[in-house]
Every structure is written in structure tokens, then in C-alpha cells.
Amino acid sequence: MTQWLNNIMLVCLILLSTCLNAQTRAVSSSTAHAKIAIKPKETQYLKLSAKLGCNISVIYLARNIKDKNNEPGYCGGLTYEVNDFVRVSALYTRFQPINIKPTWLDVKANTLESNLEIIARFPNKKTLLYPFFGLSYNTYKGYFTGESDYLNLREYYQVNSIVKNQWLGFNIGTGMEHNFGVVGLFIDYRMRVGKQEKAFNIMDVCYTGGVRIRMPYGQKAKSFFRLNDRFSWF
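User: That's the sequence. What structure does it adopt?
Assistant: C-alpha cells below.
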């Protein structure tokens, strides 16, 4: 009888040990799957970012009759992301002084614009395509000599005088951007439509390229700046 009870106890212990081992493996397996399923959090950035870049533009299409009429400039601005599909941008552009001989000398031009951008994201979520449209305030100032005046501008402006034109324009264009984290590269193409003396026309065709700088926040911002480590002696 005692031997029989001992055998039963031994079988029970073996079964109990097998069950515990199986449960341990199941828990370990589920934990491993859970670890695999957990993905690292994506870096969060502020909705506001900065843009810096360069331009190539004809400045004033009807007046810039040079053979090589692409003029350089530089620009800076801000971008605000309303949501994942829409953002608003503001951009200031200043062009290098140019001469459009023999009619115009020492021409200075600048543009302040604001655009609404519609964002289409590529599958990698880092490359963006964004058609845009908006308004611009344009300034053109130069010395009008009156020579070779094929536009008959003598009717509007005094010969050998400084002429300053300002107009409100409509922008339309498209751009592409690729982000590498904090820094992204972009290139834009745009046309500006405005009133030219008496009629509305295409005033400018412009290419813009540069960088967009985004600022992280939260834990990623702390690791990015590491201010506590660098300035702990304050």
C-alpha cells in the first residue's frame, strides 16, 4: 500500500513539474513576442520649423530681357504644420542687385510671401510632395534710363529717374522635401502672377532650394541638446 502511494506521489510530482515547465516556456515565449511587438517611439517635433535657402529667379519677366536672366537671391522663413496633410509657410526673399542694360540699372528686388501647402507623403514617410498656392508682396526698384524702351514705359515713368514698383501677386507652384531627422532638404518651383502696368501677367518664375530645420521636443529634445551635461557647473 505504501509503495503504491509512493508511486502515485511520484507520478503527480512528474506531472506537476511538466506543467510548471510548460507554463514557464509559454510565459517566456509570450514575453519575447511582446518585446518584438514593441516599437520604439518616433521622434516628436515642434509644429513650427525654420527654412533657409537660395533662389534663382527672373525677378520681373517682362523687363529682364537679358540672354541669361536667372538672377540669384537668398531667402528665409517659417513653416507651421496644421496637421499631417496641411501646413502654412511664410518666406522672405531678397535678390542681389542687378543691371538690365541699357534700360535698367542697379535694380533691387525682394518678395514677402505666404503659402498654403497640401502635403502628400511617400511610403517612407520622409519624402514629401507639396503643391502650394498663396499671396506675395513684391518690390522692384531701379534706375530707369529710358534707353531701348520697347515696353514704352516712358508713358508711365520719367526718364533718368529712380522707379519703385510694388504689387500684390498670386503664387502657385510645387515642391519636394526629404527629411533626415532634424534637417530636411527641399526644392520649390513657383510662378507669380501680378499686374504689369495695365494688364495681369506672369511676373516671375522662380526656383528655391535649401534646408528646413525642425526642433524635437520631449525626451528626444533632452538627448539632442544635453544642456544639463554641458552646463552642469552653472
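Strands lie at 48-57, 71-81, 86-95, 98-100, 104-118, 120-121, 127-144, 161-179, 183-196, 199-213.
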